[in-house]
TrEMBL record:
One of its GO terms (molecular function) is ATP hydrolysis activity. This is Potassium-transporting ATPase ATP-binding subunit. InterPro entries: ATPase_P-typ_cyto_dom_N, ATPase_P-typ_P_site, ATPase_P-typ_TM_dom_sf, ATPase_P-typ_transduc_dom_A_sf, ATPase_P-type_domA, HAD-like_sf, HAD_sf, P-type_ATPase_bsu_IA. Part of the high-affinity ATP-driven potassium transport (or Kdp) system, which catalyzes the hydrolysis of ATP coupled with the electrogenic transport of potassium into the cytoplasm. This subunit is responsible for energy coupling to the transport system and for the release of the potassium ions to the cytoplasm. The chain crosses the membrane at residues 62-83, 89-107, 237-258, 270-294, 613-634, 640-660, 680-705.
């Protein structure tokens, strides 16, 4: 890492106030308008849908594959013995398959426009590659490899994903977030990552590339919205097994009807048997499953969340615990030094000088803000290079989440700053003690939700605490209400932070989380997740720092803030482009909606099939078994029109349900059991009744066709 202190002081204070410039007081939940189902989107999807009729693709859906085979068989029969009835049935069987692929093509098509605009954002982007000799060379952005170093200045489009290793800039991320307010990105802290395709608005940054070509964030997003990376989730596999079983059962049922009927002297034609089979197997859900899944992922992208797997989205629907880190997640995360408080026996200048010295080589935003505040208070001192030796020979004690301290080792003394408990222990080890007024100051700052840092110095004669630095951070607005909403959904929120218990308590109260854990190391954060999981709970984790990465990886649903470090984003299975910790509300909603929609349409589909059986079988056999005429309550015109009406109804119901599959069944924050009961009633009962009405209506219309009625 390059240890040049950067000029944070040149950034106007108001700009550095919030993560999002200009809108510190207003945390927006930005969502893109969902794509509408229009005539043009349907016509655009039509050729794609025809392409999907290839048996190689159809085999993935056994139900629809059965219909395809049936349609092929009937076509062959039509060629040999054409009749109005057989041609009509065959045509509608083909339409049934087509409506299925059409629903999938429409769902995919909605992401295409978004993918195209993402692609355009990278078109022809040039990069200034830094050469080993320090010079730069112009290269194409797509040529960049992992660990290349590029220089980006105001006006440049950042050529690929990376981590800032030097400098600070305001960045326009609207190409990926749709949010026009610029954000601050800077080296050293938890806001160091930049995304290819976004634009530098001011200043100059040096970026180390963290993605291989074709593996950037935008590449992944394009593949996601185009539906190219769909894998079946465990729920989808379970449904798949159910659908295959039902298909086999009804195949057997239909086949056994043939000898049964011929015994009575009325051998049903193969066309009738195929039609009956198609009506009985769950074609509605078989046709709509892919569209439901794609639409769910699409909704997530509309909420500016990028997920690497559909599985995580569905799991989100069943989450009961949400862990969040504090700094950078619940708060904006640009903690800045706002004041110095010397111990009674120490002068203000002595404290500030030591605090400054301990931060000279500290590249974190906290460290740099201490140097800045020292300059503001008029205290200057040696630069790193002037400390008698080059910075290479200086022993720099870098901040780590487990030591909670940072500082420098000089010839005759050591300076440290860090969390109160850590510095107190460091001093106590060398025989020093923490003065009472310092302890009181630490309590006072913590109680306000600030982060106190103690400054200490150690020589061969022992160690002394010099005073306290007050670091202040701002809780993102609107947290209380959103956490209350999570509580209503039955989700417990727990803040896990590396900060001290008093600060943690104050911030927890201000944000309105249910519980908190303070002084948590990365291992502790991981342990909390393991414990929750061992108790059988599904856990989501939201975080931004490298110290959150293990926990993000272990959680069932890990949501990284887009503002966070590359390590955090890599470990998580979702990234929120808006860096909004309460986005989980939307993610859970989308997950639940996905499961409910699939469940509701499955219920409807199966209920429908049962009803169709009772609607058409009596009509089929009234000629053979006049006794069955009693059951022919529907009074359908003839057995031919009964069969054809059922096939037409079966195909049209797919079209009718495409909008619902894409939009999703409305989800409200009620308990899962109540939602399930309500859905069974609405979609089960609806599925039972709909065929009787639909088939009767179609029968009335088509009975006028000669050869059918
Ligand atoms: N640059 C630094 N130098 C010295 N001490 C620091 C520095 N940055 C933070 N600290 C101290 O170390 C503690 C732990 O930091 P850590 O990054 O693990 O957690 P955090 O940022 O406070 O909280 P969270 O885990 O919620 O992000 C901080 O609360 C602070 O007291
Ligand atoms: K069916
Ligand atoms: Mg953090």
């Amino acid at each position: 890492m390059t240890r040049t202190p950067t000029g944070l002081a040149t950034v106007p204070q108001t700009l550095a106030d919030g993560n999002r410039l200009g809108t510190p007081g207003e945390h927006k939940h930005h969502t893109k308008a969902p794509a509408k189902l229009t005539l043009s989107s349907v016509t655009a999807a039509l050729p794609v849908a025809v392409g999907k009729l290839a048996p190689r693709q159809m085999i993935h859906s056994p139900v629809m594959f059965t219909v395809l085979v049936g349609a092929g068989l009937c076509t062959a029969i039509c060629l040999v013995r054409p009749s109005v009835f057989s041609i009509a049935v065959t045509a509608w069987l083909w339409l049934t398959v087509l409506f299925g692929t059409l629903s999938e093509a429409i769902a995919e098509g909605r992401g295409k426009a978004q993918a195209d605009s993402l692609r355009a954002s990278r078109q022809g982007v040039q990069a200034r590659l830094r050469l080993p000799d320090g010079g730069t060379k112009q290269v194409s952005g797509t040529e960049l490899r992992l660990n290349d170093v590029v220089v980006c200045e105001a006006g440049d489009v950042i050529p690929s994903d990376g981590e800032i290793i030097e400098g600070l800039a305001s960045v326009d991320e609207s190409t990926i977030t749709g949010e026009s307010a610029p954000v601050i990105r800077e080296s050293g802290g938890d806001r160091s990552s930049v995304t290819g395709g976004t634009k530098v608005l001011s200043d100059r940054i040096v970026v180390r590339i963290t993605a291989e070509p074709g593996q950037t964030f935008i590449d992944r997003m394009i593949r996601l919205v185009e539906g190219a990376v769909r894998q079946k989730t465990p729920n989808e596999i379970a449904l798949h097994v159910l659908l295959v079983s039902l298909t086999i059962v009804f195949l057997v049922v239909t086949m056994s009807l043939a000898p049964f009927a011929s015994l009575a002297g009325a051998t049903p034609s193969p066309i009738v048997l195929v039609a009956l089979l198609v009506c009985l197997i769950p074609t509605t859900i078989g046709a709509l499953v892919p569209a439901i899944g794609i639409a769910g992922m699409d909704r997530l992208v509309q909420h500016n969340v990028l997920a690497t797997s559909g599985r995580a989205v569905e799991t989100a629907g069943d989450i009961t615990t949400l862990l969040l880190d504090k700094t950078g997640t619940i708060t904006y995360g640009n903690r800045r030094a706002v004041n110095f408080f010397p111990a009674n026996t120490v002068g203000m200048t002595e404290l500030i000088e030591a605090a400054r010295l301990s931060s000279l080589a500290d590249e974190t935003p906290e460290g740099r803000s201490v140097v800045d505040l020292a300059a503001e208070k008029g205290v200057s001192g040696p630069e790193l290079a002037e400390l008698g030796r080059g910075p290479e020979q200086l022993n720099v004690v870098e901040f780590s989440a487990s030591t909670r301290m940072s500082g420098l080792d000089l010839d005759s003394r050591r300076v440290r700053k860090g969390a109160a408990a850590a510095v107190a222990a460091f001093v106590a080890d060398l025989g020093g003690r923490t003065p009472d007024e310092v302890t009181r100051r630490v309590q006072e700052i913590s109680a306000q939700g600030g982060t106190p840092l103690l400054v200490a110095t150690a020589t061969k004669d022992g160690a002394r605490i010099l005073g306290t630095i007050h670091l202040a951070d701002v809780v993102k607005p609107g947290m209380q209400a959103r956490f209350a909403e999570l509580r209503k959904m039955g989700i417990r929120t727990v803040m896990v932070t590396g900060d001290n218990p008093v600060t943690a308590k104050a911030i927890a109260a201000e944000a309105g989380v249910d519980d908190f854990l303070a002084e948590a190391t990365p291992e502790d954060k991981l342990a909390v997740i393991k414990k929750e999981q061992a108790a059988g709970r599904l856990v989501a984790m939201t975080g931004d720092g490298t110290n959150d990465a293990p926990a993000l990886a272990a959680a069932d649903v890990g949501v990284a803030m887009n503002s966070g470090t590359p390590a955090a984003k890599e470990a998580a299975n979702m990234v929120d482009l808006d860096s909004d910790p309460t986005k989980l509300i939307n993610i859970v909603g989308i997950g639940k909606q996905l499961l409910i929609t699939r469940g509701a349409l499955t219920t409807f589909s199966i209920a429908n099939d049962v009803a169709k059986y009772f609607a058409i079988v009596p009509a089929l056999f009234t000629a053979t078994y006049p006794g069955l005429g009693l059951l022919n309550v529907m009074g359908l015109t003839s057995s031919a029109s009964a069969i054809l009406s059922a096939v037409i109804f079966n195909a049209l119901i797919i079209i009718a349900l495409i909008p619902l599959a894409l939009r999703g069944v409305k989800y409200r924050a009620v308990s899962a059991n109540r939602a399930l009961g309500r859905n069974l009633l609405v979609y089960g009962l609806g599925g039972l009744i709909a065929p009787f009405i639909g088939i009767k209506l179609i029968d009335l219309i088509i009975s006028v066709i000669p050869g059918i009625g």
